[in-house]
Every structure is written in C-alpha cells, then in structure tokens.
Design a protein that fits this description.
The structure is a homodimer of 319-residue chains. Chain A is built from 14 helices and two strands. Chain A is an all-alpha fold and 319 residues long. The first copy, chain A, has a single domain, classed as Orthogonal Bundle (Farnesyl Diphosphate Synthase). A two-stranded antiparallel ribbon of chain A has the order 1-2. The longest helix of chain A is centred in the C-terminal third of the chain and has 27 residues. The radius of gyration of chain A is 20 Å and the shape is globular. At the A-B interface, helix 2, helix 6, helix 7, helix 8 and helix 9 of A face helix 2, helix 6, helix 7, helix 8 and helix 9 of B.
C-alpha cells in the first residue's frame, strides 16, 4: 500500500488528496484494467484466431479507461474488496470497446482512425469488425458470469447482488441505454435537435454506461439506497460535464478567433451544447454540472476524494 | 393439459407418442415462444422507436424456433416447472435472431431476403440493422438477468444454477462458439476446407447454440452429470444431422437429374458435407447422426419421446 495515496480498499483517506495523488491512482487503476484485459483477451491457436486478434486489437487500444476506473474507485470507496470488482470493471470496458468498433463502421460514422490507430474495419475488414464487436459484447457477459461462479459465493444474498450488478450493466448497454442513444445520435444528424432530445441522447449514449460504472459497484458492495442515489446523481452530473466538455473541446482554439464554432461537430451538422447554448452558456452549464457532481458526494466525506478529483478532471480536461 | 399429448411438465408420457402428437406439441411450444417474444419486444413511444421496431421485425419473423423448442422440451422432460424456462428459451432465440441480422449484412452474406421477407438492412438501413442486432444480443442478457431476479429465488444453490445456465448460453454464443464459427465460415469461403475444419465450423456456428439449447435447461433443472452428458451427446448429433440435411437440401432435386451438386453452396464455392462426401456419403453420415442422437436418449425411456421425434424431424425434413 502506498502511504501517500492512502488505502485503496479502506473506508477513509487519511492523507489530504491532491492532483498528483489523483493522477497516480488514476494511472494505477488504468494499468490494472489494461493488464486484466490483456490477460482476458488472449489469442488461441485456432483456425479463427483472426477474430481473437481483432478483439484484442480494439480492447487494448488504450483510451482513458474512465468507466472501469470509476468502477474500481467506487468499489474501493465503499470497501468492496471483492474479487469481482476487476472483472466487472473490465466487462464494462469491453462493452465500451465493442460500441466504438461498431460506431466507426462505414455504415455508421465511417471513421478510419481512432486514438491515432487505424480502426478495426480498416485493419481486419468490415465483416470481421462487425463480428469482433459482437464477440466483445458477448465476452463481457461471459466474463461476468464466469467470475461470479469462480468467486464461489455461498450466500444467496451475495449471489443476488451479483445478478443485480450484472443487470445494471446490461440495462445500461442495450436498447433502453447506450444503443438507444446511438440511434438518436444517428437519426438527429443534420437536423436541429432541441435541448430535450440532446439531453436524452447523451443520457442514453454515454450517460447510461457512466451511471452503471458507479451504480454497479455500489450494488456489489451492498450500498444502501441513499448511497446508491447519491452516487447515481454524481454519475449523471459527471456524464453531463463529460459531454459538455467534449462539445467545448470541439470548438476550442478556433472559437476565440472566429467567434463561432467551426469544429467537426458543426461541420457534420451536429447539435451540441455549444450550438444550442453558445460558448458562454455551455461553459456555465459545465460549471453547474461540475458543482452538482461534487455536491452529490457531500455525504461521503473524505472517502470520496478520488471521485471528487475525477469530476474536476473530467470537467477541466483539455484532451 | 391435453390427454392425447401427455403432460408437458410430468416425468413420463403415458400415451405412445406419434408424429401428430409431436407436430402438435412442436406448434404449441413455438406459439408460446412467439407470444412471449411479442410481449418482450414492445415498441415504446420514444424518439428512438425505430430501433425497437427493427428489433421486433427480426425477432418476430417466424422461423422454426428449433432452439427454444428444444429448451422447453428438455425442461418439461426433466420436470422443470420453473418460471425461467420460457424467458431463457426466448433469450436463446434473441441470440439466434441477432446473428441472422448481422449474417445478412452487405459486408457479410449480403442477403436481401430471409424467410420470404426483406432483411433488416433492406427495411431499416445498414446502420440500424447493425444496432438492432447489437440490441437483440444485449436484450438476451437483460431478459435472463431480469427473469432470474424476478423469480425471487431464495436458495444459493438455485441461484448458482441460474448463473451456470446463463453462462452456458453465453459461452455458446461468443468467440469460442457461434461467432467463432461464423469467422471460419467466412474465411473458408472459396477455398476447399477439409473435414476437420468443416466439422469445427459447424460445431461452433450452429452446434454450440443447439447444444446450449439442451444443456442450459438441464442445468436449470438440476440434472445430474450423466443426464447432462447424454443430452449433450444428443445435441451434438442433432446439430450434425441438422447441418448435413441442410447441405443435402441444397442439392436435392437437381442432383438426381445431373448426378452432381449444383445448388447455391456449390456456386458459392462452399465446402459442404455433399461436396466432401458425395450424396451417398452424406446420406450415410446423416443416418449415422440420426441413430446416434436416438441412442443418446436411451436412458430417458418414454420421457424422451418428443426429443426422439425431434431428431427424426430434423433429419428427415424437406424444408
């Protein structure tokens, strides 16, 4: 245990928690996720090994790992030393990874690059990219179910919590969550969406998985309804801050000079918080979301230091 | 309860079980699955309702429902009156339905029609078809997890069985099951596959889900290891018979006149049991598989009448 960063599985953080400690713990969480995904996504020597290579290619392509990091941080905050935290966090990241492969497909956003690397269909072909996405989504459930069985839980209450935690992720990922949001995004391209539709789109497309990243570990840890509600509120505002920041980053730099958004969102005819509220309005909404996220954590005291820094990190990031 | 058909949830079939009784019970099982899928796949009044329409379109498009029928039949044979049988059987069918949508995509088999209706991407566009497939796969897990929680199981042993039964389906559907088989199929098109590869392809592509259709209800019913093994053997031979029959049907009618296969498989350069073994060889292999499927059921006595008729039905079907 690193004394500077405080105990990861303890109930309190005895040392004041600063930016450096946050960055170090963020990196440590992300490294745990990277290593576990690497261990999960091996490439067996089988005729269909190219599928496994495609799965590994996309899931190991870095990224900020914000969702699984949130998962692990909530687990640590609530004292969940359970062996299920890491596999469940990785299962969540597999869902995220599959959604990016399918988002990038020619029939969808038709993107050739992601995080500086060619997208899956550019490397493996379109058919394989579709199947690799399918297989990653399915692997998410294979992984959770296997982990629950291998944990050898003998109490019915604990097992029921595992099933609830899986259900929480499943509901967030499907038609009433992420996939539904992708459909709104796709169908509203080129036409001016109103604020209600924009918020619904983000709440489903990115918000649902972020909320699940916080709610699912809370269920696994046996959090009470008040803690669950506070964490869900935190996640909702965190997700909103994340999205507004994304929209602002899309116009940053050019907006100052030209006084109007000229980023890729605008070019693609996308409604964003900036096109809807203007730059100042979006910055004000971001500040509100950031404050509300922090307020939602007030009941957790010092235990929530990492989650607080996460809200600041997400709202202020420049990448 | 219908006296002619015998009890569906009892341990024995008191009345000799003929073709008509089989056909009637088959139709009844299929109707239960159809009705349940209809109830599950409602179209809510939301901005993304088109996604839900696409999901419903593909899952409600008929088909033989062989996998969920097997699931229900095994459950009835083993005396599983559990409320989980029907939702799990439907979850299996949702996985099958998603795989057909993605199989038909332009980047995959590029089929415009299935079961006499335009395929999903012809009706809803390619992007929506991809997302509808994703959402159906995910819905399968949403459905199982919800059903397990709503069943209110209070025993840890029963809950663990539910998790094992879900895992059984998940493992069959993923990269080490169905999706892996699809990749072999895709990659071996146009080149002569040997019998080993052909068998691996079918064992994964269609065999894995058929085996799970039999193994998963056995787990839910708490079957012993001997029963599980016998049922798995039955399923393997049933799956093989299903595939050989498919290959034979592709050349039937024309083969008699021309003495060589001229069906669509041959035109597409696909290796099949007919191209590999010839017509007579394939018919002999079919007969062997059918006999082996029936033999695997010998320990179940009269309880297995429906499953026996199913093997005959699958091996002899003309559609």
């Amino acid at each position: 245990m690193n004394a500077v960063m405080g105990p990861e599985t303890g109930a309190t953080d005895p040392i004041p928690f600063g930016r450096d400690a946050f960055a170090a713990r963020l990196a440590r969480y992300a490294a745990r996720v990277d290593a576990e995904l690497e261990a999960i996504l091996t490439v067996p020597d089988v005729p269909e090994r190219r599928l496994h290579e495609a799965m590994r290619y996309s899931a190991s392509s870095g990224g900020k790992r914000i969702r699984p990091v949130l998962f692990l941080a909530v687990g640590d905050m609530l004292g969940g030393g359970s062996s299920l935290m890491l596999p469940f966090a990785c299962a969540l990241e597999l869902i995220h990874a599959y959604s990016l492969i399918h988002d990038d497909l020619p029939a969808m956003d038709n993107d050739d690059f992601r995080r500086g690397r060619p997208t899956s269909h550019k490397v493996f072909g379109e058919a394989m990219a579709i199947l690799a996405g399918d297989a990653l989504l399915n692997r998410s459930y294979e992984l959770m179910l296997k982990s629950v069985l291998e944990a050898g839980t003998e109490s019915a209450a604990d097992l029921a919590r595992c099933v609830r935690a899986m259900r929480c992720l499943a509901d967030a990922a499907g038609a009433c969550g992420m996939v539904g949001g992708q459909v709104i995004d796709m169908e509203s391209e080129g036409c001016q969406a109103d604020r209600n539709l924009l918020e619904r789109m983000h709440r489903l497309k990115t918000g649902a998985l972020i909320r699940a990243a916080v709610a699912s570990p809370a269920i696994l840890c046996g959090a009470g309804p008040e803690e669950e509600a506070a964490l869900a509120l935190y996640a909702d505002h965190l997700g909103l801050a994340f999205q507004i920041r994304d929209d602002l980053l899309d116009v940053q730099g050019t907006e100052a000079e030209l006084g109007k958004p000229i980023g890729s969102d605008a070019r693609n005819g996308k409604t964003t918080y900036v096109t809807l509220l203007g730059g100042d309005g979006a910055r004000m909404a971001l500040s509100d979301a950031r404050r509300a996220a922090l307020e939602a954590l007030s009941g957790f005291g010092g235990r929530a230091s990492f989650l607080r820094e996460m809200a600041v990190f997400v709202a202020d990031r420049t990448f």
